[in-house]
Automatic annotation (TrEMBL):
Pfam families: CT398_CC, Zn_ribbon_9. This is C4-type zinc ribbon domain-containing protein. Residues 14-194 form the CT398-like coiled coil hairpin domain. Residues 205-239 form the C4-type zinc ribbon domain. PANTHER family: PHOSPHOLIPASE C-BETA-2-RELATED, SCAVENGER RECEPTOR CLASS A MEMBER 3.
Amino acid sequence: MNAAPADQIRLLDLQALDTRLGQLAHKRRSLPEHAEIASLEADLTQHRDLLVAAQTEESDTAREQTKAEQDVDQVRQRAARDQQRLDTGVGMSAKDLENLQREVASLAKRQGDLEDVVLEVMERRESAQERVTELTGRVGSVQAKVDDAVARRDAALAEIDAEAASVTKEREIVAASVPADLLKLYDRLREKQGGIGAARLNQRRCEGCRLELDITELNEVRAAAPDQVVRCENCSRILVRTNESGL
């Protein structure tokens, strides 16, 4: 393939732009905020799960407290009715009064036991409420950190994308000035050779593979016409000759 030396040198400008686009893409993928957000979101999920568990426990103990208080109230009402009957004693035999006294005493003990249950449930509910309050604060704190990291990531991405858009436009201009067949070869080699399709021959060394040409390869390049597109024997990339090639 033949191409004017100026068109071949223009490939170096194109390669520099493509290299910068590759660097920007890598920078975009490897922003430290990505890992920071992933870690914070994992913490946030864990804290939210703990919060849901605490809220569930608080809700369960609230229902349990209501039930226990209802049990106490039922026993208290029954005891009050029995005590009223005992106080009046109308139409009751001595044996009935004795039985009623025993029932009142039994209900008093039952009421005491149930009130102890209410106190125990209230303590557990209070503990659950404190846990809910604590975890709510933690979730809010971690969420704030996530929001901050997301804002920093988005700002960094916007900056990268703006530069990438600018470089892409510049690349389009440069690529339009390169002959179609040369551009096609360059793009094919760039895709095959890890993003580098053209490399400068600098002081007898290919800047693509970083290897120095041996004497036979160097003589072949020297003998090539200025408009001949030469390739590196080691990496197959287009070798662009300049005044610094050492030929």
